[in-house]
Amino acid sequence: PGCLLLQFLSYLSACDRLLKQGYEEGQVEEAMEMFQYSEKKAAEFLHLLAQFNDMGFQQHEIKEVLLLCGNQREKALEELVMK
């Protein structure tokens, strides 16, 4: 049980850090789940999601492409442009 508590506290800390970077709570939770609670991968995903969103791409398409491309910016951008 102690191990689960530590994992949960680690998750909350990671979410808190991402929220302080200005990401929405729902997006932070979704990203953390998608990347098995890896703060680094979730942060990359959220950063690219915001970047591509600002370029005018649809959020659902961005999410799909980022997952398929493993957060590789150039590859994801190529896929988005081709859609």
Automatic annotation (TrEMBL):
Pfam families: UBAP-1_UBA2 (PF21267)
Molecular function via GO: ubiquitin binding
This protein's GO CC annotations: ESCRT I complex
GO biological process: ubiquitin-dependent protein catabolic process via the multivesicular body sorting pathway
Gene3D superfamilies, A to Z: UBAP1 SOUBA domain
Domain UBA: 36-83
InterPro entries, A to Z: UBA, UBA-like_sf, UBAP-1-like_UBA2, UBAP1, UBAP1_C
Alphabetized CDD domains for the sequence: UBA2_UBAP1_like
Name the UniProt record assigns to this protein: UBA1L protein
